[in-house]
Specification:
With about 325 residues, the protein is α/β, with parallel strands linked by helices. It contains twelve helices and eleven strands. The structure holds beta-D-ribofuranose and calcium ion (CA). Beta-D-ribofuranose binds next to helix 1 and helix 6. This is Nucleoside hydrolase.
């Protein structure tokens, strides 16, 4: 299996991502680190520990990370994820507490200890990842790839042009993009498309197995409806985990990506340069060098839904 570490802000769809990473036979979830985003970091830690317990994986190390972005103040998304940050489903409090090391220390330890290079899956603002890269740059020697949920080629969600994770900590996202390792951007363009149909969500909810049932509850809470009569639920962040388990389901193009850092209405936008590649077009003359990122442009929705259900109902 592929060794993976998830950095998250659990978060309804982060929880869906954790459930998949725990249950997919092709993935070896080695640690989970928490950061402020959808809710405050202590809420994220609690939610993450609870999800891992419900998933039957209470042994996976979990660490508490950054309480706030590098520069911005915390701006949670409780309007989307509920007061507790995870849909207010009335889940039990976790039985354990997080690791006694912080997220950056746990990331460093687990990345360097892995016998095979690790794939990092950030599904949250990139604060922990940026702090890691600046504090322990040597970790990149044992990172296979970073597959991050964030950014948008087309339309944003936090603002007309900015996606929430990048908008919440734009400087951190810029540091992540310049990590110098292969990077896949699983942005809103694909993120919003992978929806589990209503009948499947109902079946998951009716399951007697706690982890499977939780996936159903979370999906039902998430919506959204393309078909109002039978809404289903979006996989959200879990799609980034699908992209690691089954990269063939994603169509990516290697393109320059720049995070807009200037104050104002474009702050947090990921500017993806879809013009012809340098050398192929004079359009690029004088263009500043930007990191090249494998940007997801298309996704095989049916394939990822099938992958998700097969793993979570296993
Ligand atoms: C991202 O923002 C969060 O609310 C979700 O968990 C996801 O990671 C989508 O913009
Ligand atoms: Ca998230």
């Amino acid at each position: 299996p592929v060794p993976v570490i998830i950095d998250c802000d659990t978060g309804i769809d982060d929880a869906l991502a954790l459930l998949l990473a725990v249950r997919h036979p092709g993935l070896d979830l080695r640690a989970v680190t928490c950061v402020a985003g959808n809710t405050d970091v202590d809420g994220v830690v609690r939610n993450t520990l609870t999800v891992l317990e419900q998933a039957g994986a209470p042994e996976i190390p979990v660490a508490r990370g950054a309480e706030r972005p590098l520069i911005e103040a915390v701006r949670t998304a409780r309007h989307v994820h509920g007061h507790d940050g995870m849909g207010d489903l009335g889940l039990p409090a976790p039985a354990r507490t997080p690791a006694d090391v912080d997220a950056v220390a746990l990331l460093r330890r687990e990345i360097l200890a892995s016998p095979r290079p690790v794939t990092l899956i950030p599904t949250a603002p990139a604060t922990n990842i940026a702090l890691l890269l600046r504090t322990h740059p040597e970790v990149t020697s044992n990172i296979e790839r970073i597959v991050f949920m964030g950014g948008a080629v087309a339309t944003g969600n936090a603002t007309p042009v900015a996606e929430f994770n990048v908008w919440h900590d734009p400087e951190a996202a810029a540091i992540l993009l310049s990590a110098g390792v292969p990077i896949t951007m699983y942005g809103l363009d694909v993120f919003q498309r992978v929806i589990v149909p209503g009948p499947d969500v109902r079946r998951l909810r009716a399951s007697a197995e706690p982890g499977t049932r939780l996936a159903g509850e979370l999906l039902a809470h998430r919506g959204p409806a393309t078909d109002e009569t039978d809404p289903g639920g979006g996989l959200g962040d879990a799609g980034a985990v699908c992209a690691v388990a089954d990269p063939e389901g994603l169509t990516t193009h290697r393109l320059p990506v720049e995070v807009s850092l200037a104050p104002g209405p474009a702050r947090g936008q990921t500017i993806v340069d879809r013009r012809a590649r340098p050398g192929e077009s004079e359009l690029h003359e004088g263009t500043r060098e930007q990191p090249l990122v494998d940007v997801a442009l298309e996704v095989d929705v049916a394939r990822y839904v099938k992958l998700y259900l097969a793993a979570v109902e296993r």
